[in-house]
Amino acid sequence: MLSLSFSFINHLYKNPFARSLIIFGVIVMVSPWQPDAYRIEKTSQELAGSKSVYTYRDIDNDGNSDKLRFINFREKGFSSVVVYRNNRTLGQWNFKGTWNDHRPMFMVNDYDKDGLKEIFLFTYHLLPQDH
């Protein structure tokens, strides 16, 4: 019986999976527990019936990407563009009309050469007889 247990331990010691499992267990036991590193916080809220698409572009040419949020309120017939920098809202623009359900069609570039990029969002809206 004693020789069986030694052969079993010897077999486990030679098995690479068993070795890695033992090393993993040691690492977990000696690692400090940091519960704050894994805290979940609510960062944003979406309205029902809206669809948001996010993209990142450097709007003011400072080398940092700004977050652009395109919001489609299809049932209400309007769209919005919101620009964020460092989780603060820089501006919001609302448009009559909506974009298609898949992706907004937009262009971001410095068209007037003033050092700031312009955002063009292509939307459509139905005429009264099309409802």
The overall number of domains is 2
Total helical segments: 2
Overall body shape: elongated
Tell me roughly what share of residues is in helical segments.
10-25%
Roughly how many Å is the radius of gyration? Answer: 28 Å
Mean pLDDT: 79
Largest sheet: 4 strands, antiparallel
Instruction: Give the assembly state of these chains.
Output: single chain
Sequence of secondary-structure elements = HHEEEEEE
Strand order in the largest sheet: 1-2-3-4
Given the helix and strand composition, which structural class is it? alpha+beta
Number of strands: 6
Rounded to the nearest angstrom, the distance between the terminal CA atoms is: 85 Å
Unreliable stretches covering 5 or more consecutive residues: none
Beta-strand share of residues:
25-35%
Main traits of this protein?
131 residues, alpha+beta, 2 domains, 4-stranded antiparallel β-sheet, 32% strand
Layout of strands and helices, then pairs:
Blueprint: H1 2-14, H2 16-30, E1 51-57, E2 66-73, E3 78-85, E4 88-96, E5 105-109, E6 118-122
Antiparallel strand pairs: 1-2, 2-3, 3-4, 5-6
